[in-house]
From TrEMBL:
It comes from the Eukaryota. It catalyses: (9Z)-octadecenamide + H2O = (9Z)-octadecenoate + NH4(+); N-(5Z,8Z,11Z,14Z-eicosatetraenoyl)-ethanolamine + H2O = ethanolamine + (5Z,8Z,11Z,14Z)-eicosatetraenoate; N-(9Z-octadecenoyl) ethanolamine + H2O = ethanolamine + (9Z)-octadecenoate. GO terms for molecular function: fatty acid amide hydrolase activity. The keyword Signal applies. InterPro entries: Amidase_CS, Amidase_dom, AS_sf, FAAH2. This is fatty acid amide hydrolase. It is an enzyme of class 3 (hydrolase). The gene is FAAH2. It comes from Marmota marmota marmota. The active site is at K131 (charge relay system), S206 (charge relay system), S230 (acyl-ester intermediate).
């Protein structure tokens, strides 16, 4: 039976809108781009900026370097580089320097020995940046939504409070996509962030401001979120480490929290104890057919790991599985808030078609990805029949992966079809996030691991996946690959 005439008209309209958005992306690619003399950020001239969080904290505890000198070094770097990458959107310099002086004052009193300091404050004096969508007391908390541009955090998010308790010093908040629902970090309040390895390329999203900030040596620890790859895509595009924990490791209010680091060991220190890497020789390494054979060869030949190529037919439904997850009711049994309501900041829902017209006239306060998502939202949402169908696929794939991996296996999977694309390209490739989003749907821990740079100087990397609550395995493999392939590479000449 043919659909009603009105439904066919609506479908044709949606297709036309999709085509229009694609054309907008192509046009933006041709004419858009940052206007800088150099396509990469400047060199790092301060040795402190090349040290890991663990190394910095140790030097501060040992009183070999002053905390204020570390914080000031990062402030100077931010002033030099941030105008190019637009990663940090609000500074906290004066408060950070005051807190750094307080650390130095306490250390000068010698009230605790080094061992006690390490146990109480493992990140003592280490600079920290936080995604703007997270609460950091006294700082903006708009999530890139113009309607919330005056929102100021009155408290700290749990993960931020824990890092501050561990001694970290926040120096600023970082950019994100509008309402954290797109994989290019750009919004109408703060503008667009640029990749430090090539300013004409994206930083990813939604936590892209964190990704480029750490990659450009403007911070050493970053807090982001990951509901569909928002940690792992920016980590991949910017050549740093990112970790999406197993669901349940955090409270529901922060279920999608993740962390960024230049060095893998920092993630391990924050959450888990790494097992002896010699045990990797008996680990069962599973590989998707077309992945990085260099990595596999290294694990196989050097460690003697057992490697298998596997074809998981149900992975072709990655996008559908993510939509199924997003169609699931919340823990309270209620329907999730509609995106059009969120864009209205829980006030009057926006009219996406009207906003599209306004956008074409340069009058809308919303970004085109948000308008597009609002237009297609109801079409993307599954009815009971489709939900049931893909929920069964998800459960089947989850069971297959969990049985295959056990408690001693990892699965290596591409992070994205390409390295960081140029600005606006995601508009023409909106579903590529499914390479990361599928593991949110499956509820598995994933560590994004950098593997250096390609011939054009852009970062490459790989996702390391394990069974539920085996985060220590993904981190162990990532740590080994960091030692073997070099990990983070500073953009520009050092």
């Amino acid at each position: 039976m043919a659909p009603p005439f009105s439904a066919r008209i609506q479908l044709l309209l949606l297709r036309a809108v999709g085509f229009l958005i694609g054309l907008i992306g192509q046009a933006a690619r041709a004419f858009g781009g940052p206007k800088f003399g150099s396509r990469t950020t400047g060199p790092v001239n301060e040795p402190l900026l090349l040290l890991s969080a663990i190394q910095l904290a140790k030097l501060i505890r040992q009183r070999k370097v002053k905390c204020i000198d570390v914080v000031q070094a990062y402030i100077n770097r931010i002033k030099d580089v941030n105008p190019m990458i637009n990663g940090i959107v609000k500074y906290r310099f004066e408060a950070a320097k005051k807190e750094a002086h307080a650390v130095d004052q306490r250390l000068s009193e010698k009230l605790e020995d080094e061992s006690t300091l390490e146990k109480k404050w493992p990140f003592l004096g280490v600079p920290l940046t936080v995604k703007e969508a997270f609460q950091l007391q006294g700082m903006p908390n708009s999530s890139g939504l113009v309607n919330r541009r005056d929102a100021i955090s009155k408290t700290d998010a749990t993960v931020v409070a824990l890092l501050k308790k561990a001694g970290a010093i926040p120096i600023g908040i970082t950019n994100c996509s509008e309402l954290c629902m797109w994989y290019e970090s750009s919004n109408k309040i703060y503008g667009r962030s640029n990749n430090p390895y090539d300013l004409q390329h994206i930083v990813g999203g939604s936590s892209g401001g964190e990704g480029c900030t750490l990659a450009a040596a403007c911070s050493v620890i970053g807090v982001g979120s990951d509901i569909g790859g928002s940690i792992r895509m920016p980590a991949f595009f910017n050549g740093i480490f990112g970790h999406k924990p197993s669901p349940g490791n955090l409270t529901w209010s922060e279920e999608f929290v993740g962390l960024y680091f230049q060095c893998c060991m920092e993630i391990c220190l924050t959450h888990w104890t790494i097992r002896n890497l010699n045990k990797l020789g008996s680990y069962h390494i599973c590989l998707f057919l077309y992945l990085f054979y260099k990595v596999v060869g290294h694990l196989e030949n050097i460690l003697g790991a057992s490697v298998q190529h596997v074809k998981l037919k149900e992975m072709k439904y990655s996008f559908q599985l993510w939509i199924t997850m997003m169609s699931t009711k919340g823990h309270d049994g209620k329907e999730r808030v509609k995106f059009v309501d969120l864009l209205g900041d829980h006030g009057k829902p926006i009219n996406p078609l009207w906003e599209l017209i306004k956008w074409c006239l340069g009058l809308s306060v919303y970004t085109i990805p948000s308008i597009g998502l609002a237009l297609f939202e109801e079409k993307l949402k599954y009815n009971k029949e489709k939900y049931k169908k893909f929920k069964a696929v998800e459960e089947s794939l989850h069971k297959e992966l969990v049985e295959m991996l056990g408690d001693d296996g990892v699965f290596l999977y591409p992070s994205h079809p390409t390295v960081a694309p140029k600005h606006h390209v995601p508009l023409t490739r909106p579903f590529n996030f499914a390479y990361t989003g599928v593991f949110n749907a499956l509820g598995l821990p994933v560590t994004q691991c950098p593997l250096g740079l390609n011939a054009k100087g852009l970062p490459v990397g790989i996702q390391v996946v394990a069974g539920p609550f085996n985060d220590h395995l993904t981190l162990a493999v990532a740590q080994y690959l960091e030692k073997s392939f070099g990990g983070w590479v500073c953009p520009g000449k050092v």
